[in-house]
Amino acid sequence: MQALGRKGLAQARSRLVRSNDASFASIAGVDKAPMSRVEPDQYINDRYQAIEDRLKVVRKRLNRPLTYAEKVVYGHLDDPEGQEIKRGVSYLNLRPDRVAMQDATAQMAVLQFIASGLPQTAVPSTIHCDHLIEGTTAPQADRANAFGGKADLELANKQNKEVYDFLSTAGSKYGIGFWKPGSGIIHQIVLENYAFPGGMMIGTDSHTPNAGGLGMCAIGVGGADAVDVMAGMPWELKAPKVIGVKLTGKLSAWASPKDVICKVAGILTVKGGTGAIVEYFGPGLDNISCTGMGTICNMGAEIGATTSMFPFNRRMYDYLVATAREPAAKLAEAFSEHLRADEGCEYDQVIEINMSELEPQINGPFTPDLANPLSQLADNARREGWPLEVSAGLIGSCTNSSYEDMMRAASVAKQALAAGIKAKVPFAISPGSEQIRATIERDGLIEIFEKVGGTVLANACGPCIGQWKRTEVAKGVPNTIVTSFNRNFAARNDANPATHAFVTSPEMVTAFAIAGDLSFNPERDTLVGADGKEILLQPPHGDELPPRGFDPGEETYQAPGGHAATVKVDPASQRLQLLTPFQPWDGRDLEEALVLIKAKGKCTTDHISMAGPWLKYRGHLDNISNNMLIGAVNAENGKVNSVKNQLSGEYGGVPDVARAYKAAGQPWVVIGDENYGEGSSREHAALEPRHLGARAVLVKSFARIHETNLKKQGLLPLTFANPADYDKVGPFDRISIKGLTSLTPGKPLTVVGKRPDGTTYDFLVNHTFNDNQIVWFKHGSALNAMSATSK
């Protein structure tokens, strides 16, 4: 890596790692362990020594036992001596070890990095092409009547060539590793190659916590946060609280690691983990595979948790060895005193789950925290009127695409085949990586899936993030799908708001796809074989690691090639657009802004900035802004994408009305409900409102990542001091925000609302800005502030 050449950044970067010649304490004499096979000059030893040095300082200051999460977080403090450390209160400046970006979010992150003017990234960083590949399970004209993984990947390479070339050349120029289309899903690639116990990484995807299955503190962020870290600056995070989940017992029969997190989601709800790291502990840990722990951490994003983590154990050691990282395994073993919680540490909340008593959970529809135990699912479905006929089953995704997952699902399919039974509905399989695909093909699992009627999709996200060209069910037709994904918001998978999506384990999905009935209980119900005899499926089984080792498959990694690479963006492009800095704050209170929309009920980042077919515009801010808030329900009329233009009196789409306001120089605000912005880390949900003229977002409560993203882009994320004041705001009111000229941490602002009849009301709103974030606001964005300080 080369020096940054920006005032102050070189000194900050020098604190990132210790010299390779440092004298080690707990890891003295242990062989050096590269951070990955593709980064032989970067060593985990250096990171561990830095953690140990920082923790010596922190332990003296706090003088109390530490949770494992605290050890990793505080072990990455930029200034362990001077940093205030109060869980749930302090804003910490941290030094993550690496950055990972998926292709849909990487476009904007790289564009912002280019705008910063810096020559190269300061920490190891990677781009993963997994989001732009559309999956199919039926013949398609645009694929010469072919479908499935090979046809889908070929078309994606053609349709997305401009974006892939941009990311590839940018990676080469700025020192970012590039994983080509077909390599696999970002989180599986990270687990196989980059994650290590005790490390810290940020990723521009909300399911980055998947790496917690290997003991890493892995946190989902927006692209602007990634730019900070890639630029060598400290990364800011509010000191998380720590929720402890004690696991006892052992999973058996049809129960799986997915059921642990589905159960936790049912307990904590979609916002119960907000502002906290979920740390698992207890005697049950050693009964879960490393990839199973990854599944649990991955879906922890659905409870709003900052991240989820497991302490280092033998299952992690075995996985590191199996993925050709034995030096890292031995190093972690030597460092293990720092890779587990201290005896006597205290959690802010404790949940206990006896896995011996846990039954399969099927969560949904429309929200991932509606947990239905298998024994109650049929009754719940009939009572609620959910469609009982299953229309599709889909397994894989970043949550459940390990070798163990695939083998357990295949063991169910194999039983059906032996009885002459095939899947009754379309059945799709998404391998998590090229390594997983090649290994399950070698071991005969793909053959089993295809014989039972399944379609193997590309090594990519596919239907999980809405990249599903579904043609067998018309939009608006109520239907049920069952997936092993992590998220099931309305219209997320197939753009059909009437699709009832349920999430569960891959083996349960396979059973439902074979039975074709949501009321089917494989623990007690039978299937009728080709010979007319009834069979009871036996519980699934699968090896946690392939007995013959992993087959790496095709090489899909591109190493950085140096500064000579040319990065071009065509001004006429409809896919990519260089960024123009946002205007700084004008120094005045906000006066008489219009309410663009008062959103009612759940308003996730999918509602604010849909994925699916819109993913193609993720690198073009103006084009992607045409989907802003088109999924949000307007409280005034109960419709989506229909708001009144208060300048013309006519109704129009939300983005169209916003553009009209922007053209007229009329500021506007958004009013929202609880947990506004839950779900994905996509910063487009903040960039789009900012681009189209928004000034503030007033809600009952925010999801963590979205609130930060709004701040990063110079917007005002505000919460009602009294949530009942949400009802005071009318859809046609004018909103003024008083107190901006004296904006300070912890000091509420005052909202003055003016109704169409001229009467007014006022109430207090809170904010969570600290001093540094106020600088972002005043400069118009965090990127503007960074540029100003580096000149």
From TrEMBL:
Keywords: Iron, Iron-sulfur, Lyase, Metal-binding, Mitochondrion, Transit peptide, Tricarboxylic acid cycle. It catalyses: citrate = D-threo-isocitrate. It is an enzyme of class 4 (lyase). Residues 70-516 form the Aconitase/3-isopropylmalate dehydratase large subunit alpha/beta/alpha domain. InterPro entries: Acnase/IPM_dHydase_lsu_aba_1/3, Acoase/IPM_deHydtase_lsu_aba, Aconitase/3IPM_dehydase_swvl, Aconitase/IPM_isomerase, Aconitase_4Fe-4S_BS, Aconitase_4Fe-4S_dom, Aconitase_dom2, Aconitase_mito-like. Binds 1 [4Fe-4S] cluster per subunit. CDD domains: AcnA_Mitochon_Swivel, AcnA_Mitochondrial. Its cofactor is [4Fe-4S] cluster. GO terms for biological process: tricarboxylic acid cycle. Belongs to the aconitase/IPM isomerase family. This is Aconitate hydratase, mitochondrial.
